[in-house]
Specification:
331 residues, alpha/beta, six-stranded mixed sheet, five-stranded mixed sheet, 14 helices, disordered N terminus
């Protein structure tokens, strides 16, 4: 009886070992990889909706092997902090505007140049084409690369008077995003560039610390700037896209088919985002008009002429000058 039990025990142990072995072999193939994505915009903002859609596409197309957790509203930090976390391996994916990316990879700074794009079609031909892809890939040595661009609309001036001609800006204090290119543009136009954090802008406009600002039309509604600034001048001086970024360490850990899946899902979510964003801009303009904001068109040719020295300055950085020329040559 004892011998029989020993034999049964041995058979049982062999069976258990076989099952465990099968589990160990099968386990990694079905394992889920969780990726963390951080951004600074509020929950429910159109960008947040688009990033949730990106995460859903990745989850569905990978059959659950890749799972992106989205952390909105600056939960993990603001743009610069998020980018640094991505570089350090603490974060897998980040949504950021191209302007702050220029501090990490200068190529992204070309998008800050005023009047770089002729129109809507030109913008999308660039960012969805070969030149746009080169800029996305240019930061690989900086420990991250871009997957896709999200449209962020055109930036124009708003104040309490029309700014149809460059001389209308003379003597005004205008809030800009911190950075040398925006500051140079404002100063060339005869105004005083005043860098301020986004959260301080409403109060600065209301109190007269600044006389105006520049942004896309949603600033009038989502940030309520239309309550205190009543004229929006469509000069459309810049169109700086947002970028969905991935850490190169994260990307390189994925299988080739997963890397391609991630890229394609980002691009597909970008197309949906761009349509959603266009509708959001149209809606914002209607809401701003109800707030009493008037919309006027600028003399864009006059504006372009005044800021032309910025392109002359760019020649001191041949790589950026060549990139700007290539972008403007896209038909």
């Amino acid at each position: 009886m004892f011998a029989l039990n020993r034999r049964h025990a041995a058979l049982l142990a062999t069976a258990v070992a076989a099952v465990m072995g099968l589990t160990l072999v099968a386990g990694p193939a079905a394992a889920k990889t969780t990726l963390r994505l951080g951004h600074g915009l509020a929950k429910g903002h159109p960008v947040d909706v688009s990033l949730d859609e990106f995460a859903k596409l990745v989850r569905e197309r990978s059959k659950g092997e890749l799972d992106i957790k989205v952390f909105p509203a600056g939960q993990l930090g603001q743009q610069r902090e998020l980018i640094e976390q991505m570089q350090n391996g603490a974060l897998d994916l980040v949504h950021a505007n191209a302007s702050p990316l220029a501090a990490f990879e200068p190529s992204f700074g070309v998008y800050d140049m005023p009047f770089l794009f002729r129109d809507n079609d030109h913008f999308f031909k660039v960012v969805e084409g070969a030149v746009g892809d080169e800029v996305l890939a240019s930061s690989r040595a900086k420990a991250f690369v871009g997957l896709a661009y999200y449209d962020n609309g055109t930036r124009s001036f708003y104040a309490n008077k029309p700014l149809a001609k460059p001389e209308d800006l003379k003597g005004l204090k205008v809030r800009v995003q911190p950075g040398p290119i925006a500051t140079r543009m404002i100063n060339l136009l005869g105004a005083t560039a005043t860098p301020l954090a986004w959260g301080e802008v409403y109060t600065a406009l209301q109190s007269g610390v600044v006389d105006g600002a520049e942004n896309n039309v949603t600033a009038l509604t989502l940030a309520r700037h239309g309550e205190v600034m009543k004229v929006y001048t469509r000069d459309e001086h810049t169109r700086v896209p947002d970028v969905v970024l991935v850490a190169t360490a994260t990307l390189d850990r994925l299988k080739p088919e997963q890397q391609e899946l991630l890229r394609q899902a980002a691009r597909d979510s970008a197309k949906a985002h761009n349509a959603r964003w266009a509708a959001e801009l149209e809606k914002a303009e209607g809401e701003a008009a109800k707030m009493g904001v008037k919309f006027v068109d600028a003399d864009k040719a006059a504006y372009r002429q005044v800021v032309q020295p910025m392109y002359d300055d760019l020649k001191a950085t041949p790589a950026l000058a060549t990139l700007a020329d290539r972008i403007q040559a896209v038909k």
